[in-house]
Design goal:
The complex is a heterodimer of chains A (172) and B (152). In chain A, a hairpin with a 4-residue loop joins strand 3 and strand 4. Chain A has a 6-stranded antiparallel sheet with strand order 1-2-6-7-8-5, with helices on one face. Chain A is built from 4 helices and 8 strands; from the N terminus they run H-H-E-E-E-E-H-E-E-E-E-H. Chain B is α+β, with helices and mostly antiparallel strands. Chain B has 4 helices and 8 strands, in the order αααββββαββββ. The chains are: A alpha+beta (172), B alpha+beta (152). Strand 5 of chain A pairs antiparallel with strand 5 of chain B, so a sheet runs across the interface.
C-alpha cells in the first residue's frame, strides 16, 4: 500500500489527469476523493447523454464510462509507481434505472491487489449508497512498461513538445 | 440532425416502424441523444447491420497513445446491442438492460471502430445479445461484450 506522503503528491496529478482527459471533459465529472485504493466521483445530469428519450434517463454507456474511470483511478492509486492500468474486463449489473435531473455518484474500491492483477468493485448511486443504480466488478492489469508509466508519458510528451509536434494534444 | 423537442411513445414507435421499413437502422440511432454524443452510426452491409463509430477527440481516454476510452467502447457496444434488438425484432419499447459484461482484448486505437451484434437467445422476457468491436480486421477484435435485456 501507498505511503501517505507519496499519495499527497500524486493525488492532485491523478485527479487532474482523469478529469482533463478528453472523454472526461466531454462527460464533465468531478473526482471528489482519492485515497489509497478508494476513489469517489460525481457526475451532474446532462441531457446530451440521454439514452431513453421517453424517460430522459442517461444511457447505460455513461454509467460504464463512470465506473470504468472510477475503478481504474482506484487501481492506479495502489501502484508503487504511477502508471496506467489497462482494464482486463468489466462486469456491470443494473439494479434500477437512474432518475433524470439528478447527479450520479460513483464509489470504487480495490478489494484485492496482486502482483499482476488489481481487483476492483464500484457502485453507482443517486439518493442512497445502499440502494445503488448499478454495481460493477472490474479487473485491471499491472503492466511494467515504460510507455505506460506516468514518467514515461510525461517524457514522451516533453520530447514531442520540444520537437514542435502538437499531435499529443489531439484536437483539444 | 436536430431532434424534435419531445419524443413521445407514439413518435418513437412510428420511428421504429419506419426504420425497419426503410431498412435504415441509423434512424433508430438518431432517436437516442447518447449515440450522437459518442458518434455511433449504423448501416446495412451484406445483409447485416454494421455499427461504426468514427474517431473523435472527445472519445479519447488516454491522450498519450492515443486510445479510445474503455467506457466509450462499452457504451458503443451496449448501444449497438440495443439497436440490434430494436431493429431486428418487433419490440414496441426500448429494451431494459439488466447486465453487461465486457472483455477488453486490445487497446482501442484512435481510428474508426466497428461492431456487429448477434442475438443468441430471444426469450419471452429476457434476451441475450453479444457484441464484438474491431478496428482493422474483424478477426482481431478489440473488445467483446455480452448483454442481457428485459423485453416485454
Amino acid at each position: 500500500m501507498w505511503p501517505d506522503l507519496k499519495l499527497a503528491v500524486y493525488r492532485p496529478a491523478l485527479k487532474l489527469a482523469m478529469e482533463r482527459m478528453n472523454h472526461g471533459v466531454a462527460l464533465g465529472y468531478t473526482i471528489t476523493r482519492v485515497d489509497s485504493g478508494e476513489v469517489d466521483l460525481s457526475f451532474p445530469y446532462k441531457e446530451k447523454v440521454v439514452g431513453n428519450p421517453l424517460t430522459a434517463v442517461v444511457h447505460g454507456g455513461v454509467i460504464v464510462s463512470l465506473l470504468d474511470t472510477c475503478c481504474s483511478t482506484a487501481a492506479m492509486t495502489v501502484l508503487n509507481r504511477p502508471a496506467i492500468t489497462p482494464t482486463i474486463d468489466l462486469r456491470l449489473d443494473y439494479m434500477r434505472p437512474a432518475e433524470p435531473n439528478k447527479p450520479i455518484y460513483v464509489t470504487a474500491k480495490v478489494y484485492r491487489n496482486t502482483s499482476s492483477v488489481i481487483f476492483c468493485r464500484g457502485v453507482a448511486w443517486q439518493d442512497d449508497p445502499d440502494s445503488p443504480i448499478a454495481h460493477c466488478v472490474a479487473n485491471f492489469m499491472r503492466v511494467k512498461s515504460p510507455n505506460i508509466s506516468f514518467v514515461g508519458i510525461l517524457r514522451k510528451r516533453f520530447q514531442r513538445f520540444l520537437a514542435g509536434d502538437s499531435t499529443s494534444e489531439v484536437g483539444r | 440532425m436536430k431532434e424534435p423537442d419531445k419524443v413521445t411513445l407514439e413518435s418513437l414507435q412510428a420511428g421504429l416502424v419506419t426504420a425497419r421499413k426503410d431498412a435504415n437502422p441509423q434512424q433508430i440511432l438518431d432517436l437516442i441523444p447518447y449515440s450522437s454524443f459518442i458518434g455511433a452510426r449504423a448501416k446495412i452491409e451484406d445483409g447485416a447491420v454494421l455499427y461504426y463509430m468514427e474517431k473523435r477527440p472527445s472519445n479519447i481516454g488516454n491522450p498519450s497513445l492515443p486510445a479510445i476510452h474503455g467506457g466509450v467502447i462499452g457504451g458503443f457496444l451496449e448501444l449497438s446491442a440495443a439497436i440490434e434488438l430494436l431493429y431486428s425484432f418487433n419490440i414496441e419499447k426500448l429494451p431494459k438492460v439488466v447486465n453487461f459484461s465486457l472483455d477488453y482484448l486490445r487497446p482501442g486505437r484512435y481510428k474508426t471502430t466497428y461492431a456487429n451484434c448477434s442475438v443468441l437467445r430471444h426469450g419471452k422476457k429476457l434476451v441475450n445479445v453479444t457484441a464484438t468491436a474491431w478496428q482493422d480486421n474483424p478477426n482481431t477484435p478489440i473488445a467483446t461484450a455480452r448483454c442481457h435485456f428485459l423485453v416485454s
